[in-house]
Amino acid sequence: MQDLSRRRFLQVSAATGALVITAPNFSFAQDMGGDRYRNLDTNLGFYLKIDRDNTITIGYSVPDDGTGVSTALPMIVAEELDVDFEKVKVEKLPPLYKKERGQRGHADEEYKGQPIHQSTGGSQAIRRSYVMLRQAGAEARARLVKAASEMVNVAVGDLKTDKGYIVHGSNRVSYGSLVDAAANVTLDEEPKLKDYSEYKIIGTDQPQKAATDIAVGNPIYCMDMELPGMLNAVIARCPYIDGLVKSYDDTAALKVPGVRKVVRIHRIPEDRSKQKIIADGVAIIADNHWAALKGRDALDIEWDDSMWAHADNAWIDSEFDKMVESGDREVKIEHGDFDAAYAAADKTLEVAYEQPYWAHATMETPCGIADVKDDKITVIAGNQTVNRVMNDLMQVFPGYTHDQFDVTITRIGSGFGRKFIVDAVTEAALCSKAAGKPVKVIWTREDDLEQDFYNPKGRHVFRGGLDENGKIVAANYLHCSTDNDFAQHAFPAHHIPNYRGEVVHKQVLPSGPWRGPTENVAGYAMQSFVDEMAHLAGKDPLEYRLDMFRETGDTPHPGFSSDFMRADRFINVLQIAAKNAGWGKQLPKGHGMGVASFMTFGGYAAAVVEVKVDDDGTLTIVKASGACDPGVVINPLGCKGQIEGGTLDGFSAALGQKIEIEGGRVVTNNFDTYQMARIASAPTQFDAEVAKNNIEPRGMGEMALPAAIPALCNAIYDACGVRIRKLPIADQLEQAMSA
Amino acid sequence: MVKFTVNGKSHTFNGDEDMPLLWYLRDDAKLRGTKFGCGIAMCGACTVHIGGVAQRSCSVPMAAIEGEDITTIEGLGNEEQLHAVQRAWIDEDVSQCGFCQSGQIMAAASFLKEYPNPTDEDINDNIDNLCRCASYMRIRRAIHRAAGYLRGEM
Ligand code: FES
Ligand code: FES
Predict the structure, then answer these.
(1) What average pLDDT does this structure show over A83-99?
(2) What is the pTM assigned to this prediction?
(3) N or C, fewer C-beta in 10 Å, chain B?
(4) Which residues pair with residue A263 across a beta bridge?
């Protein structure tokens, strides 16, 4: 039963013996060129399904890479539906094909509504689903109530709902018993959404729905999946940046038992001035992963390393030197007269902060499964963006249309931005085409760390001037980077009357989004700079920040997920973190406390860190206090997990992570050389708190990290007077204390 | 030929004895709860118990397991009968992406046999599995909670 006249285009059906509320169908119809996605009529449909036995299943459209969307998104539907969330089953929705912007037939121009969001990244899943999911839940609830009212001849207003039941006085009728009637009722008006104050599920602690699957080791990740008759491949990819296979001899490889085929994989795109998606290489296709690895070891390959043979970190640093000297840069933001104000300043500081390339090192290495047949391509992938899987594959296999794809997106063994790139599954498809069978490609950790899309390396040069009252009156921020990234409107750009922000870049290693892109390093640089200015002014670093927010008030922040930056929200999270940390209390000898705050994708974070630095330079992180304000908090338990994880992830990057490059190849290619923190580095005390308010929500995945790193560095300075101007911290403290 | 047991069932293996146990478990036995993370014994994602003791299966060749009793996450407990450590992991809502967690659970289950009343320092000194999502705060809490469960508290 369709009800397409309704303006939100939710589709309702009882065809499968359950009430199924599907999507705002109009947006799909547009994108599909008129025909609906084939999965829409079967299974779960979109969003929610109520069976006759009152089993409630809520679908989530966004793959979960650990930020908890598979629990949080269904909570939003459940809130309006009014069901017992503990009993709700959740299910990943089948992917919906949608053309990408710029592609012929893309419909966003005509369709002004909100399309179903199917991507995890940019902390967007909650933000872009919040209203639509509530509408879906409210639609279902209103229909059930209407059906009940018609059945028992009671006014809609006299009926209540309670955890999956319609209630009238002492009578209770299950939703499940009403599904057929509910699909056929006509609603006279658009169901009203609940007010924030009425929420019963949103804002309560809900454990991850996948917790048991994970704890018992159920096969839920791409790497755990298989297709019948599947072979396994590993690929020898050129380890040199933008390098090529010069020649190879596969005689020995083909003699390894279990090896079936050796296939040349060509770089995508072919033009080496463009960043690679697929590295040039040679694939070994075998009966199992181990045989493929042995085959790869036996392969004899000569590489063309000529393009970047001169590249290493020292060379990139010398390029940054040239950038600083040349003055050739792009001014991104400017107000007042920096030069005059700096010249007239009472005190000045010129300082640079450096940070290396970081790798994503997702726990599940990139992996993809594909079966390419003449008339159909079946893929299983653990990618962050559903649409991109199909769209990218269609570029590589132009003969196929979207309805010839069968795509399954699994739970993702961590993403952090890495799994936007549709490389492993494309490689699997290329191998499958060559082998004529389904193929799984697993990347080894070496493959992953050598072939990543790294967080850009950068140098952040600041010149700052104070007036006689200790206020920052002038600042110039120059960001030299291996990517064109710049935190244009971040604090304190608009809090300094004479300010110039500039960027200059040169790409070396391929780069891509890494948890809190740009903000992750801007947080370190900008919040270290403010801290140094506070100390130069002889002021308390917390009060110094609070004063800047109080005096300037809200500031513009046009762009991704935000229009402006609110001073009161920053002040609030700073005060929460400071209170939990006991800011200002007497600390034991060798201890120090640091503070920082940062806004990432519309969410506000503050961190206060307490450290201990021993006389020999041994660093202990004693306690971390993280406070975030994402707006409406869907699942506080999950949010706190993201504050804890994001903070510790930041500490891990700051403490030890650094990509080393030699002769144009990454040499830190496994966890023996690429240093990631373990439990021993984590503080034993952690206060995670989320602010409470009813502002439209933002995602939590990236919020905490950009404030965590500078809070740690600022705490180290407070403890021992050593200023961390270069990441990673590594053994800098030991060196400084012994000097 | 190598003979051994996995989760109480006897297995025999006739293939390449250089192959790490991890890939036998994943590809041959199709027990995919044991994860691959590094292949060089540096992350612990592949942790299983051999004779009841945690070992990193990516670095144990098939040749080395003759006569051994292997336990994987699937053999530790299941949905109906969770092991105390699994229960603690769920109760503390430890997992983020979850990919490291079967290894973490196996490491913790073995550790708690030796340290039934662990201090934070004991944990720091003995558990060094990588969690890329850095869920360490909750891992630590879950280990303490599991210790309580194993002692019969709660
Ligand atoms: S895969 Fe075995 S320790 Fe990492
Ligand atoms: S939960 Fe993601 S790696 Fe540990």
Answers:
(1) 82
(2) 0.94
(3) N
(4) A283
